[in-house]
Amino acid sequence: MEILVCVKQVPDTAEIKIDPETNTLIRAGVPSIVNPFDKNALEAAVQLKEAHGGTVTVVTMGPEQAKEALKECVSVGADRAVLVSDRAFGGSDTYATSYILSQAIKKLGNFDLILCGKQAIDGDTAQVGPAIAEHLGLAQMTYAAKIQVNGKKISINRETDEGYEVIEASLPVVCTVVKSINEPRFATIKSKMAANKAKIEKLTTAELSDLDPTKIGLKGSPTRVKKTFVPVKRESGVKIKEETDRDTALKLIEKLVEAKLV
């Protein structure tokens, strides 16, 4: 079974800063990690490989530093790692990103299953996985909390607000997964050392010669960000706790009167 997993390197912080000129994330000086949901996707892929045989290829689009994320993926079970990187890709929105990744996937070969995390924690759009399916003309299955493969058939338990939907499709498909699907394994010292020596393949516009230049980068991105901002932190509220419930209520009323709310 040939499986490909799309991962993203994201900032390891909740303190997101925005460049007011470009309306993009400021990543300088911020530590990076593999997107947590993508770790679940990789773990699902490795478990399927262990059950059915085959290989797991992991791919990411980003700058040179994203190689570290790929090495981490190799340390926990990926067999092949590919970095899609080129200055021409800078500024790509989810449409352009999914288009570039879909062309990279075509270049890398035929896969039975393409897995993605449900969303990236820095953008939270949940668009890239389904968009890859559209670009490739494949069926898509989203929010998978359980995956079962039987021959050329795949079934998932799709997580919804009301419970689960059981969906079946014929391979190949693109599938996004949720956090509850598994607990990602940890790398060992031995696997980390081996991953540091792993070959990281690289694809640029030179290798992806069929790329439509009008669909990549900032100019090829139909999304236009008019304004971004970091919400102002509010002061924490006042906790009122007196000796009795009556005294607590009276104190609350006193505070409301002072604030001219009653």
From TrEMBL:
Pfam families: ETF
Transmembrane segments: none
Coiled-coil segments on the chain, per record: none
SUPFAM superfamilies: Adenine nucleotide alpha hydrolases-like
InterPro entries named among the record's database cross-references: ETF_a/b_N (IPR014730), ETF_b (IPR012255), ETF_beta_N (IPR033948), Rossmann-like_a/b/a_fold (IPR014729)
The Electron transfer flavoprotein alpha/beta-subunit N-terminal domain, residue ranges: 22-212
Signal peptide per UniProt: none
Official protein name in the record: Electron transfer flavoprotein small subunit
